[in-house]
Amino acid sequence: MAILVTGGAGYIGSHTIVELLNEGFEVIVIDNFTNSNPESINRAIQITGREIKVYNTSLLDSEGLEDVFLHNKIQAVIHFAGFKAVGESVLFPLEYYHNNVSGTLLLCQTMQRHNVKNLIFSSSATVYGAPDKVPISEDFPLNATNPYGRTKLMIEEILTDLYQSDNSWSITILRYFNPIGAHESGKMGEDPAGIPNNLIPYISKVAIGELKELQIFGVDYPTKDGTGVRDYIHVVDLAKGHVKALNQNMILKGINTYNLGTGRGYSVLEIVKAFEKVSGRSINYKITERRPGDVAVSFANPEKAKKELNWEAERGIDQMCADAWHWQTNNPNGYEKAPQIMEQEFPFVSSNEREIFLK
Ligand code: UFG
Question: Most CB contacts within 10 A, which of 28, 69, 263, 348?
């Protein structure tokens, strides 16, 4: 029996795979590598010394998906695959709805056909929109403010309807706050394509000299120093949260939603300072206008996950920044996007053209 991880080559997916393998689970990955690099899977194999079966398939390829379920005994699915850039989603809403929502529908239909009814879904704190107060609890009103966020919200609603129609499903919705950091080995981390949108990857590239300066989007928020406040969570803590959620999901039927955050908020300037401290580099920055759509303050009430999943984030902000910096300095070009070279390195051992075994 295996755990199927969609989008397993991505930032959170790859870290989760490592934690799953460390806990003894067998892992199968589906990824179409549109926004990720298969090298991340190789790194997961290096870190754990375990095998991973990988399918180069889109969730929109219903035949490909069917194949995966036909040829494997799947116990549960952790569903990460999806587009995730807020700005891009405003420009390309149809692509976002198609990829994220239709992809999830096809996945759930396939699961239903094969009687696989344990699902963990990767949602986001973005579904809370601009909260009236903090910390944010799971029962706060939901109000996504952009197409990306609405895809998450729509999927949450679809999954709720699905459970209502068939109580034999077990569905866990995880709402992430701001995942940052990298695996402590320095082998695995965030590898955004092009100029990063998010704070830590941007700061890392300024620290290493690849980008000139950070733009701080607004210093006139009603916060301690005027900059935006977020609940940054170490990606390894987040990954461990998935394993805890999976363990609960497999013994308990129902639909449950959990915030995965630390419960602490840090401002942009505090993050800059923490990064400067651990990297020994100074981060040039300039203050610019607010970024449209940003909220002033967002941080979680993580109590529900602590109580029901027996999970809590353990890594502090210095470690998050230190691990991000370790990853950046060890991999200045990320996973080195050079597919032709990488293919030669992969031991393809499959009769099925969609299937790759990585050892
Ligand atoms: N920021 C800057 N400069 C930058 C990038 C970010 O000042 O170059 C600031 C933002 O204004 C914000 C903070 O840093 O105050 C964090 O911004 P990120 O872009 O790193 O993260 P967001 O909170 O905007 O968004 C993240 C994910 C989304 C998710 C959202 C949920 O990227 O996918 O959290 O709240 F939807």
Answer: 28
